[in-house]
Design goal:
single chain; mainly alpha; flat
């Protein structure tokens, strides 16, 4: 698990170098390394899935 600063530096460097796939990957790591943020992110993803399922039916 990266430290908060290491993760933000990795995100910054990826964006600075126009490597948006890597930036997206680092952002996902940032949100999934924190239990609180992971729970919030999973809850938001579940809501998105529910909304898309409602729109499909």
């Amino acid at each position: 698990m990266k430290s908060f600063v290491e993760n933000h530096l990795a995100i910054y460097n990826a964006i600075k170098n126009d490597n948006y796939d890597e930036a997206y990957h680092q952002i996902n790591i940032h949100f999934t390394d924190s239990p609180e943020l992971r729970a919030k992110w999973e809850e938001e993803e579940l809501e998105k899935q529910k909304k898309s399922a409602i729109n499909v039916t």
